[in-house]
Amino acid sequence: MSRVGRMPITLPKGVNVNIDGQKISVTGPKGSLSREVRPEIAVQLEGDTLVVSRSSDERAERAYHGLTRALLANMVQGVSQGYRKVLEVEGVGYRANMSGTALVLQLGFSHPVEIVPPPGVKFSVEKGDKVFTIEGIDKELVGEIAAKIRSLRKPEPYKGKGVRYQGEHIRRKAGKAGKAK
After folding, report:
1. pTM above 0.85?
2. Based on the structure, what is the number of domains in the chain?
3. pLDDT class for 181, splitting at 50, 70, 90?
């Protein structure tokens, strides 16, 4: 058995799961998410836990077993607690501001970059204009948006300018040493 796949998912209070064939819907205090699971994978609701099982021991099914359990656990945590990514803007003249619900970044380009949040995602700017947060219930969507924003101006190794995750360590390089005589 898969180590990840065989662990049951305990449902916190206020989280409801609806299993309709291969479609799993999870509803909680923060919202609702749904996902289709593969036909080889079976999901049962036993009391206040979800149990994921597979039909055979083939390699692909073992992989889908653990994947499905992890995705369902992420859905349960998302609708009960939510997910957040905190990013920092570093550099002279680099800053983040809010314009309505949209995030406006000034990253050294000739124009500001405006990012409109998709449904279910919320931006907020804190600590002046250098730190901003991405919040939502879908872990995959929050991480994807954070990665796209970071890719606009990745942190460079010489001065450390750019957009980075909070707590991310950037390996610094020395730069030019100067002329030797």
Report:
1. yes
2. 2
3. low
